[in-house]
Write a structure and sequence with these properties.
The protein is of the alpha+beta class. It is built from ten helices and 35 strands. α1 runs antiparallel to α2, α2 runs antiparallel to α3 and α6 runs antiparallel to α7.
Amino acid sequence: MPKQLILLLFIGVLVSCNTVRIPPGKEYTTNKNRAIRKFESARQLARRYQNSAAKEELRKAIRIDDEFVEPWIMLAQMQEEDGNDSLAIKSYEEAVDINPQFFMPAHFKIGKLYFEQGKYKEALESLKYYNKYGQKSGLLSDNHRLLRNCKFAIKSKENPVPFDPENLGANINSKYDEYINSMSVDEQFIIFTVKQPFAGREGQKEVEDFYYASRDSDTSQWNERRKMSRLFNTSGNEGAMFFSPDRSFLVFAACHRSDSYGGCDLYISYKKAQQWTKPKNMGKTVNSRKWDSHPTIGSDNKTIYFVSTRGGGEGSADIWKTTMIDEGKWSQPQNIGRPVNTSKNEYYPFIHPDNNTLYFSSVGHTGMGGLDFFMTQQEDGEWQEPQNLGYPINTHRDELGLQVNAAGNLAFISTDRLQGYGRFDIYSFDLPQIFRPEPVTYMKGIVYDQNTKKKLRARFELIDLETEEVITNAHSDGRTGEFLLSIPTNKNYALNVKKEGYLFYSETFELKGVHSQTEPYKKDIPLKPIEVGETVVLNNIFFEYDEYELLPSSKVELNRLVDLLENNPEMYIRIQGHTDSQGDEAYNEKLSENRAKSVYDFLVEHGISEERLSYKGFGESQPIADNDTEKGRAKNRRTEFEVIQK
């Protein structure tokens, strides 16, 4: 495993164990005094940090007596500390070949070093030996963990998962290092970090800057990358930028700034009228005096998962989460706990747009070695036991950050283990089926004033009709009216779009039972100013066939209507029921009136004065679509309200 990783945000994770020095003793495994003197000389030199000279003395001792175990062990330890793992293995193996029982930790060290090189079968032999004979050593728990990982790695290599990565190309990647940060739900926009040489600050050899790229609408190829503005790129170190799914704000990490609380803090910027605000430290509620980084934002546009080394967690680096209470105000971060976090380190969380599937890197769970990619999902609000993504997605090296598209079928990683344009490049690959999240589609378009065509900033709420839970909060851009909304499949939703001074807009997404990618919704939304005579179709009012009792799933829409009337106390409305043309005309009129009255009764029961309400059934007399098709008839079976007075 590499002994160092990426400047700033990619903290190296090393499997650590206490180096065991050989205590001085009166008896050695040699009776040759010249060899003993050389060994003692090496010990003295090492105490004075003259390591090169110490190693030369050890080699001289070995040349005098190559059966002298102690210098082999000390040489191996020094080679290990230097990062010369292959040489260290050879030296440890020489020692155990001479006397396998003399220094039992050598077996563990051999196993550990082979494991870190991905030589699992060689590692297994030494780890098994230590497991059998090293019962008195304090390294036994670490040996058990490595033995478990080694067996898993061997089995994983015998049963590889599909993995055929494709480089994103020269418009994204370069001779420098690229690390993926964030991708939009519609896959048309990507943010990434580039590490490249820097000559501006004394002692600083490299700097990380943010870049972005968009796709060509005709070819779907990535356009040439562009560097983000100085608002985000400074002479200091920033990284791990993540956009909220609706693109209304972004969060990134920056280190050692004058307003920092710790080593690295999270910073936030909001989009206001097509301009990004100056990034601000997220404050001491979110940030700590330790290291805070690797943010990822849920599709609800208010939950941030991130990594922190603050106290009170499971290990030194854990995944935490905070939730937006109001713009600029965040909840006290909570450690998401086990089984995700371990006593080791977890990094690079990515919460999928389904808001239920979390990908992350960990050294604490059973894996191939170093940081492996894992996936976990929530059931009844509890994270389940993480799954290792398998070989060759994972290897003995460190795997640094994985993103998955909204459809759930394509993953993106940054890696240096493939032949690319530079060291670390960004690649995509088909994600194996067993590791895929619930697919997510999206809705995009423009919100505008129906009369003036002026673009509007409006609030979107996507609500689970079954649980009444608000799945997503989002806003359209105040200048362009553009919006982008994540819609997880396999549930039925009510969409509510509202703005003060306007009648709300509602939409239904019936996706229950849909487990595959659905076509994106592209729709512009005209909002009607509150004017007498304006009508709104209540698309999320539901009745059983041929019945007029409101179904529970209607409550979401009706509560929004209650809110509208409470916020506009001068508004008077008439509830209007309509049917299709099937059946008897008189029966249809009566059914539509009873349905309108059911809505009327709900509003009265929830505090709206009867004086402000009326209702009427129109039966089949006012169709808005063709009654010759089922689609048309469905549109005609509707409940709406008309503004009578404002």
